[in-house]
Amino acid sequence: MIARADALQALDSEHFDVVVIGGGITGAGVAFDAATRGYSVALVERADFAAGTSSRSSKLVHGGLRYLQNFDLGLVREALLERQLMVALAPHLVHPLPLVVAAFDGQRPDRLTGVGLNLYDVMSVERLRGRARVPRPRWGGRPSDAARTDFSEWSPERHRMISGEEVLELVPALTARAPTSGYLFYDCQTDDARLVLTVLCEAERFGAVCANGLEVTALVREAGRAAGVRVRDPASGGDFVVSASNVVNATGVWADRLRPHELHDEAEVPRIRPSRGTHITLRHSDLPLMGGAIVPAGGGRTIFALPWLGRTLLGTTDNDYEGDLDGSHHVPPSEEDIAYLLDATNEYFGTSLGPEDLTGAYAGVRPLIQTGDPKKSVDISRKAELYETSSGMVTITGGKLTTWRRMAKMAVDRLVEREARDAPCRTQQIPLGAPVEVRDLPRVEGVPEAAYPALAGRYGHAAHDVLAVAREREELARPIVSDMPDLLGEIAYAARREQARSLGDVLLRRTRLGLLSGRELRSDGPVAARVANALAVELGWDERERARQLEGWGAEARAEGVVGTA
């Protein structure tokens, strides 16, 4: 990405066809889509890219089996087709994940689940032309083995019954319960924050200008029509106008806080009902998984147990959120939600895990949609909602991580239609980054071998650039946390090339260590100090500013509920 200072100068001095408010996956997608259709595009984000919901998902690119229960067939069908497209366009970031529904005590898996999986199969049949069927690897070995399997020519197989032995190959954590059989099916997994950053980089490649840390304070209007936004830069205290012919509001759960006051009929505008989803992470050794498992959680609900980045990820909850959203993007996980996830996990796997076993916990707020009619308070699932207010500002909200590209298309299609342009969507055929073979990455002295597949999966071909940074100084080639592959060089790279400005930016979103190794990241500990030192070199902090940034990380970590930092 271009340097933030250069982005600010361009935003202040140029006129754009479109300004996008919001740097999550939807906003990034809108910027990418519009730029590839020939629009000049600006994107501004109040906090950091992906700082809200887009870094707090279940890390799945999937159709959503549970939506079949609500007969949201269109949503599931759309998501399944997008899932397959994402594997083709970003194979280093979006990869297939085997999932198991296990059965015990000689019983067969639930027949209703089988019916749902049959429907899932049927709605997945429109394969990309020329794609092969998924191979059937053996899933033994380390957690990263599945990610290294070649799925570059992937399309989903039909679900099938597997034996108890095969269940245990995928879900060793069930050994004590001796499963007798199970269903096996496939969905896909990603690193959500890295997906956002990759889409933003592609948007910039087509000419978009993106900057974080800019708060929109007003909608600028000329003759009653949206003509840009006024933004404030808390870092400098200054403010300026980003001039644009069109304004797209892609702020997700915050979308209705940007509605202008001149709406003709507010009753027609959908309302956002925030829903908090909490996740926790554990050491792989405490709950070993090679594939994912669907875990009953009482009341007819289920949660996922998933291998992710060397840890085990459990989630999610789904509860109405009534906390403050106006002043901050920080949404901590509640103790009740953590207890709910641990109770379901312990009952299913026969374990006795407690809060002290957590390596991380996080929560996000999803923008579920409900109508403006108080008699119709039921949310409209995870469907996307597009509306245009009387100023001409277009708002896109709702939806889910998997369908980001289609949501972006909806928004840009509206701009194209009202301007009568001939500019069809192209994002279904443009790769997102470039994959790289692990064996083709240059070996750098001091970089552990486990770091190379992690770098390839996170950055694709840009891993070459990260390794070039790691080669500069001995400490940059070392891991940040001893049992994780993330390198200190990634911190320097994030500051130089990804507009990272704080410890929270690099520990929560550029790397994911805040979600995976929270206990090692206390603001008064040696790991945080090393990260602060690396950022200080890149961003020119003096000792006073370095201390202030460490204090800021402590406050942010507590607000986020990062495990071990309270």
Arithmetic mean pLDDT = 90
CA-atom Rg in angstroms: 23 Å
Structural class: alpha+beta
Taking the alpha carbons of the first and last residues, their distance comes to 34 Å
Write up what this structure looks like.
The protein is of the alpha+beta class. It is 31% helix and 22% strand. The chain contains 16 helices and 18 strands. Strands 3, 4, 5, 6, 11, 12, 13, 14, 15 and 16 form a 10-stranded mixed sheet that branches. A hairpin with a 4-residue loop joins strand 9 and strand 10. Helix 15 packs across helix 16. The longest helix is centred in the C-terminal third of the chain and has 18 residues. It is globular, with a radius of gyration of 23 Å. The two termini are 34 Å apart. About 7% of the residues have low confidence.
Keywords summarizing the entry:
566 residues; ten-stranded mixed beta sheet; eight-stranded mixed beta sheet; 16 helices; 31% helix; 22% strand; globular
